Amino acid sequence: MLHVLLVSTSEKTTGILKEYLNMEDCMNITACKTASRARRTALETAFDMIIINYPLADEREYELPQDLAEKSDASIMLMVPAEVYDIIADRMEKAGIYVLLKPVNKTVLLCVLRFAIVTQKRIRAMRMRNRSLKDRLSEIKVIDRAKCLLMEHEQLSEAQAHRYLEKRAMDSQMSRLQVAEQLLKKYQLP
């Protein structure tokens, strides 16, 4: 499920964006009318995508998108009027914020939203894969430390230490990691 934060003083724009976003499956949409409320909400919840429709009643300097970009890894989309587009587009894009010129064509908006959604799904999948690889790497480190201890304290070769861990894991119906952790405790290493 993707978590989306909409920030807009316009009920009409919020309604249109919600309608477009709800065309996709698994969307959890939160709407705020002010920059201050958006900041508080972003501290409480991790969002995958943030869409900000300027102008906002309590902010004129366009600091909200940059603050949110620094504090989260959400895709951020900023909708701004034509008179400020040229002034802030470069600054926002350098911060990784996508800037759309208002009024936004429905087709363009739908394409941009779909692109952002697909991008967030890919990022989420890569994060999960990264987490899985980190877990596997830490498991390998623990097992290798246990092998080193067996080689040092029991004078086993690397192959013998490996075989010892595997055999003990099979015999005790435990994972190699659990056996390795027991060995680390036995030799009192963290």
Automatic annotation (TrEMBL):
<dbReference type="InterPro" id="IPR001789">
    <property type="entry name" value="Sig_transdc_resp-reg_receiver"/>
</dbReference>
<dbReference type="GO" id="GO:0000160">
    <property type="term" value="P:phosphorelay signal transduction system"/>
</dbReference>
<dbReference type="InterPro" id="IPR011006">
    <property type="entry name" value="CheY-like_superfamily"/>
</dbReference>
<dbReference type="InterPro" id="IPR005561">
    <property type="entry name" value="ANTAR"/>
</dbReference>
<feature type="domain" description="ANTAR">
    <location>
        <begin position="123"/>
        <end position="184"/>
    </location>
</feature>
<feature type="domain" description="Response regulatory">
    <location>
        <begin position="3"/>
        <end position="117"/>
    </location>
</feature>
<protein>
    <recommendedName>
        <fullName>Stage 0 sporulation protein A homolog</fullName>
    </recommendedName>
</protein>
<dbReference type="GO" id="GO:0003723">
    <property type="term" value="F:RNA binding"/>
</dbReference>
<dbReference type="InterPro" id="IPR008327">
    <property type="entry name" value="Sig_transdc_resp-reg_antiterm"/>
</dbReference>
<dbReference type="Pfam" id="PF03861">
    <property type="entry name" value="ANTAR"/>
</dbReference>
<comment type="function">
    <text>May play the central regulatory role in sporulation. It may be an element of the effector pathway responsible for the activation of sporulation genes in response to nutritional stress. Spo0A may act in concert with spo0H (a sigma factor) to control the expression of some genes that are critical to the sporulation process.</text>
</comment>
<dbReference type="InterPro" id="IPR036388">
    <property type="entry name" value="WH-like_DNA-bd_sf"/>
</dbReference>
